[in-house]
């Protein structure tokens, strides 16, 4: 593993346009529950009922009960992987973070250019009157009486996240494609790349000649197309890569 970490760090240190793509595995290390797998949320909840636009329109309360478990119960904080990615951006190496996560942990860690493919919980809109709320206001409702309700009386308060049955935000997806095609290093962290069209992004980068790096807790079917594959916890691996990047830069000044 040390050799692969060193190779990844050398590729990153020598790059001019690094793009990082993150999935649920990064947030899982902060305690955010994953959706798929043995203990995933889909073993407890019906995604059609709690995470589809049709289910939301039928029963918005079910969506918010699900969101309470996702966002409130574990009170997640950024982990060392989030901070490592933000540090690489601060060093001028990472040009964009593309994420499938909606938990805003990258921004809280200090990342500034974050393309949220599935939207974010940061802003919540009333589908009846058009009023907009910030997540802090919604959080107070959830930890209070648990009822998420607009001042107009409507229960149809929907965060700007992409639910099943809704398209990805076209502008964000297009920006992500542009960034992928400009990358000379494209690093995937904590994603098994099973959700499309997001899973196409590393292929766009590869077509443009980028070095592909995969960091994930487990093997994925996509590993075979990556140049450097490292299995393990992102919160342990990425800080080591950052230190190696710094060392490489000191040596090659």
UniProtKB/TrEMBL annotation:
Report domain Deacetylase sirtuin-type positions. 1-248
Kindly state which reaction or reactions the protein catalyses.
N(6)-acetyl-L-lysyl-[protein] + NAD(+) + H2O = 2''-O-acetyl-ADP-D-ribose + nicotinamide + L-lysyl-[protein]
Q: Report the principal subcellular site.
A: cytoplasm
The record describes how the cofactor is bound as: Binds 1 zinc ion per subunit.
Which compartments is it annotated to reside in? Answer: Cytoplasm
Q: Where is the active site?
A: 118
What EC number is given for this enzyme? 2.3.1.286
Q: Does the keyword Signal apply?
A: no
Q: Which residues bind Zn(2+)?
A: 126, 129, 150, 152
Protein keywords: Cytoplasm, Metal-binding, NAD, Transcription, Transcription regulation, Transferase, Zinc
**Which GO molecular function, any one, fits this protein according to its record?**
NAD+ binding
In this chain, NAD(+) is annotated as bound at 23-42, 100-103, 190-192, 216-218, 234
SUPFAM superfamilies in the record, alphabetically? DHS-like NAD/FAD-binding domain
Any single GO CC term annotated in Swiss-Prot or TrEMBL for this entry: cytoplasm
Xref: Gene3D superfamilies: SIR2/SIRT2 'Small Domain, TPP-binding domain
Which cofactors is this protein said to need? Zn(2+)
InterPro entries to which the protein is assigned, alphabetical? DHS-like_NAD/FAD-binding_dom, NAD-dep_sirtuin_deacylases, Sirtuin, Sirtuin_cat_small_dom_sf, Sirtuin_class_III, Sirtuin_class_U, Ssirtuin_cat_dom
Q: What class of enzyme is it?
A: transferase
Belongs to which family?
Belongs to the sirtuin family. Class III subfamily.
Main function = NAD-dependent protein deacetylase which modulates the activities of several proteins which are inactive in their acetylated form. Deacetylates the N-terminal lysine residue of Alba, the major archaeal chromatin protein and that, in turn, increases Alba's DNA binding affinity, thereby repressing transcription.
Task: Enumerate the NCBIfam families for this protein.
Answer: PRK00481.1-1 (NF001752), PRK00481.1-3 (NF001753), prot_deacyl_CobB (NF040867)
Q: Tell me what this protein is called.
A: NAD-dependent protein deacylase
The taxonomic lineage of its organism, from the top, reads:
Archaea, Methanobacteriati, Methanobacteriota, Archaeoglobi, Archaeoglobales
Task: Name the encoding gene, please.
Answer: cobB
